[in-house]
Amino acid sequence: MTDAPLRGAAGDTSAAPTRRQAYEARLKRRSNMIAAGSTIAVVLAVVVLVPLAPGWEAVQRSFFNGEVFAATFPGLLNAFMLDVAIFLWCAPAIAILGLLIALCRDVRAPALFPLRMFGALYTDIFRGLPVILVIYLVGFGVPGLGLPRPWNSPYIWGSLALILVYAAYVAEVIRSGIDSIHQSQRSAAASLGLSEADTMRFVVLPQAIRNVAPANMNLFIALQKDVALLSFIGPVEIFRQAGVYKSLMANFTPYVGAALIFLAITIPATRYADYLLHKQRRRQR
Amino acid sequence: MRLLATTAAALCLTATGALAHGDDECAVGKTLEDGVLTIATGNPAFYPWVLNDAPESGEGFEAAVAYAIAAEMGFDADAVTWVRTSFDEAIQPGPKNFDFNIQQYSITPEREQMVDFSLPYYTSAMAVLTTEAVVEAGAEPTLESLRGLLWGADANTTAVPMLTEIVGPERDAMLYGDNVDVTAAMQAGQIDAALFDLPTALYLAAVVVEGGTILGQFPADRSDNPDQFGLLMEEGNPLKECVDHAIEHLTESGRLAEIEAEWLQAATGVPVIQ
After folding, report:
1. Cβ separation of A236 and B157 shorter than 8 Å?
2. Is pLDDT above 50 for A189?
3. Which chain A residues touch B104 with a CB distance below 8 Å?
4. What is the domain count for chain B?
5. I want to staple B141 with a disulfide (CB 3.0 to 4.6 A). Which of A52, A182, B87, B216 is the partner?
6. What is the average per-residue pLDDT within A35-39?
7. Does B102 share its domain with B234?
């Protein structure tokens, strides 16, 4: 029930508010005040009560230490560049491999059944394994076979591990997008004389990929954070750099600094994904 | 009523403790649990600091030192209990579950601001662990040759700043979570060399790394910033003075040197890096 029809029902135009309008305005004011009051109460409770905890001073010194923060933040920012670089070269590879795997799972020619099976097996295996396990196995295992430098670099094999795992997730998302395109569209394309490949390329994929863009966006936000797992096999990115500072200064503040840097990237990215999702929902309505 | 009983019991204990050991009542009432000394070490505890991951046996340098200190402080061997902590658990704020923690903690002024360290019980040389293949390829114990190598280190150790300050490698060093990962990377040929304290390096070269060898050492008594190991305690732990006193006494009496000779083989024949 909104104001507009009420006003219409009241007939005259807003010279004096009706009793109902006054009532609703009062109600609104009241709920605003309650919302503001409870927010202030919660904030006050956190700001006043947490520092009253007996261990607060110790926690503050070891997690929110201004001196340590200032000393380590530039180094952390610098190390974060490596995360960004790894992300930038992994993301396109993941998109391409994910798309290929999704296509493998959708081939319909009987002769190509092994491809279908490969696609299914691939997604089952790599979605079923913890990322860190794949990074260890691929990052230390493959170079252990005796590859010469620079082909045994942890940057290459660690990135490959990330690509393999994330491509499995992206493939599933794209496949769900492909499945969401109704069979009638394929039939229509066939009746226009499009080959199966052309149908996929010009009819199905453009719609499918647009439909799943927000879901993929979420995966890429997750990837931004999982890039830090590469530190386990050597590269000194922000998480490892924070660990080094932590160990040298016996202080956890560098981790808080690293968390802030991550948030500075992931929060806008998350908001953007939400915006995309919202836009898509409006379009479909 | 219960409080009264506990207090009475504690007083009795204090009295008997003081009677039994005339000179070492220092620690009484300052430990987590009265009459018991709780010592923490790593999980797992590495050779040669603790043998077989069993500090209770008193075998291994740090296990032996821990029992010697406990004895100095008036605790019998059966009054010592062991707990395990990671590095992070040892430095996190809040109450600790140990009286002191012994796992090759290097004493640094930065760490000293957050936790307390005892007097040093060991001064370590740093050594370069590498493989025969790298030596055959022409690596030498000179700073110039070392700079050209691809380096690795345990990220939680003071080897990291040493690496940048003393060696200054041309390419960025790789850092790992523990010894095991460093040696895995060396085995995979991803790094040429790694910096460890000498006893750890000797053990890794002899037992863990296939074809492992020690290229050279930075001597323990280098003037700038020697790597000294201390017991880690919660900041402001009243036990510190007792522990310091015990270590002082062990050092003066030569007992500490004896333990070192017994458990840490003298590193003869390891060339000194100029």
Report:
1. no
2. yes
3. none
4. 2
5. B216
6. 94
7. yes
Give residue A107's pLDDT band: very low, low, confident or very high (50, 70, 90). Answer: confident
B92 and B69 in a common domain? yes
Domain limits for position B180: 126-218
pLDDT of residue A33: 94
Average pLDDT estimate for A119-135: 93
Answer whether B172 sits within 8 Å of A236, measured CB to CB.
yes
Judged by CB atoms closer than 8 Å, whether chains meet at B93 and A153 is answered as no
Closest Cα of chain A to B91: distance in Å? 6
Interface residues of A toward B, Cβ cutoff 8 Å, are 55, 58-59, 61-63, 140, 143-144, 146-149, 152-154, 231-236, 240, 243-244, 246-252
The 10s digit of each residue's pLDDT in B46-55 is: 888 888 889 9
Mean pLDDT of chain B, nearest integer: 84
B74-125 pLDDT, tens digit per residue, is 899 999 999 999 888 888 877 888 999 999 998 988 888 888 999 999 988 8
Same-domain check for residues B110 and B237: yes
Predicted TM-score (pTM) of the model is: 0.76
Q: Check whether A160 has a pLDDT greater than 80.
A: yes
Do B115 and B141 have their domain in common? no
Residue of A nearest to B89 (CA): A250
Q: Is the ipTM of this complex over 0.90?
A: no
Give the CATH number of the domain where residue B83 resides: 3.40.190.10
Residue B274 domain flag: no
How many CB pairs below 8 Å do chains A and B form together? 95
Co-location of B234 and B103 in the same domain: yes
* SS (HEC) of chain A: CCHHHHHHHHCCCCCCCCHHHHHHHHHHHHHHHHHHHHHHHHHHHHHHHHHHCCCHHHHHHHHCCHHHHHHHHHHHHHHHHHHHHHHHHHHHHHHHHHHHHHHHHHCCCHHHHHHHHHHHHHHHHHHHCCHHHHHHHHHHHCHHHCCCCCCCCHHHHHHHHHHHHHHHHHHHHHHHHHHCCCHHHHHHHHHCCCCHHHHHHHHHHHHHHHHCHHHHHHHHHHHHHHHHHHHHHCCCCHHHHHHHHHHHHCCCHHHHHHHHHHHHHHHHHHHHHHHHHHHHHHHHC
Q: Find the CB nearest B176 among A62, A143, A234.
A: A234
State whether B11 and B119 are in the same domain: yes
Q: Measured between beta carbons, which residues in chain A are less than 8 angstroms from residue B115?
A: 250
CB contact under 8 A, A234 and B185: yes
